[in-house]
Structures are given as structure tokens and as C-alpha cells.
Amino acid sequence: MSELFPRKQIMGFVFSLILTAAALTVYFLNMSFAKGMVVLLVTAFVQALLQLVVFMHAGETNDKWVIYGKVAFMMAIALITVFGTLLIFLWDM
Amino acid sequence: MKVDHSLPLEYSTKQNGLNIFGFWVFLAAEIMLFATLFTSYFTLEHRTAGGPNGTEIFEIAPVLIETFVLLTSSFTIGLGVHAMRIGRKKAMMTFFVITLLLGLVFIGFEIDEFITYIHEGATLQTSAFTAMLMTTLGTHGAHVTFGLFWGTAILLQVKKSGLTPETANKSFIFSLYWHFLDVVWIFIFSFIYLKGMM
Predict the structure, then answer these.
(1) Theoretical Cys-Cys bridge with B130: which of A20, A92, B122, B152, CB 3.0 to 4.6 Å?
(2) What's the gap in Å between the CA of B132 and the closest CA on chain A?
(3) CA distance B3 to A93
(4) Alpha-carbon gap, residue B161 to A84, rounded angstroms
């Protein structure tokens, strides 16, 4: 039975729950908006990275750098789209 | 077809490796789809047109349950892939069934959430905020719903043909899809709900 529950996956799950609990502090503690956003940005991106490496097995094969490169490129384009738009429409620059 | 036994079953042929890489390319495009939805949401979230805003309609309890359920399902499908790699067909199928049931619970809570919003006067037509909120959540929910059918179809194939390079490949690709939806949900949870309730 124990061979069905590898340590790596269990640690990954526990860590993802800890990250969720950490993100929740912005709701339960009285935090400034800026401080809260920093907490959310850190917990969300660490959580995404955790899923990518532990659960999606992104680094296991020969094409790992092509996979990481592809995802990193798309994340960059996604962030440029999000923040570029905010810059124009909300922050008025 | 040349089968390389040094690699996990889902990677064992050239075609399998290409299928998995192809799916990563698809997921990268999906990142962009959700990025545009988030962009529109962030741009329009304060345009409530006299209707309710996020602080008024978001409730922490159902959101927390949805998050916990989806995180757990991401864990169980990870265990499913592990069981598949050590050749345990029955355990793999059990983990996949648990994953799909958790997905069903998630969809149940999300539908209930939508019904609550509509009762509170936050419909798709109320304001730019509610329209973008429901489009973003709905696109994610539609992906999970599609995943339920896809996962069931794969389970039937595994049941029928056992763990072959083909079925293992399909199962692994499905697990990538499921983990991806979990990642998208983490961003929805953080930057729509928690940010809205902060």
C-alpha cells in the first residue's frame, strides 16, 4: 500500500495546502492592499511552480528545457498582456 | 512501433513523447486564453454599474471548499499517474475515479455559487464586473466539466485495454490537463476571490 503514496507527492500536497493557508492570511488578517498583493503574488506563483515540477513531471525527460522554455515564454507574454493593459487602462500611464 | 523500456510507459514511443510535448504547447496557449480573461476582469472589476461588487457577493466558505476539493483532486490524479508508472492498473483507476468525483463536487459547488449570485442580483447582464466574473469562472468551470467527460472516456479505455503505451499516454496527458486547471483555479482563488474580499 505504501508504495502507492510516494513521499514526493505527499510533500507536494502538504506544501500546496500550506501555501493556500498562507494566501488566506490576506482575508483573516488586517493587511494593507500592497502587502496583501505581495503575499498573493508570491503564494500563487510558488504554487504554480510546485504543480509544474512535482505533479506535472515537467523536468523528467530530455525535452525538459523545451517545456520549461515554452511555459516561461507564454507566462511572459501573459504577464505583459495583463500588466500592459493595466498600465494603459487603470494606472493611466 | 519502437518501445523504449527505460522510459515510463507514457513516454515509451517517439509518438508518445511528441503527443505529450504537443499537449504542453496546447497548455501554453491555454495560459494565454486565461491571461486575456484575467486582463479583462482586472480592467472591468470596478465597473459595477450600480450592481453588487466583489466584497458584497463573494463568500469565503464555498470558495475554500472548492479550492480544497480541487487541490485534493490534483493530488489524487498525481497518485494515479504514480500508480500507473508502477503498473498498478486497479489503483490507478481508483485514483482517477476519486479525482473525477472530486471534480464533480467542485462543479456542484460552482453551480450553487452561480445560482446564489443570480439570486443576489448579480447576473451576466448586470454589469461589466459580473459579466467578466462569470465569463472567467465559467470558462474554468467549462474546462473542468469537459475534463469529467474526457477522464471518464479514458477510464473506459484503460478498463478495456489495460495499461498500454497508448492508454498510459492518454492518461498522462489528461493528468497534465487536470493539474493545469488546478493552477488556473489558484490564480482565480488568489486574484479574484481573495483580492476581492481583502
Answers:
(1) B122
(2) 15
(3) 57
(4) 49
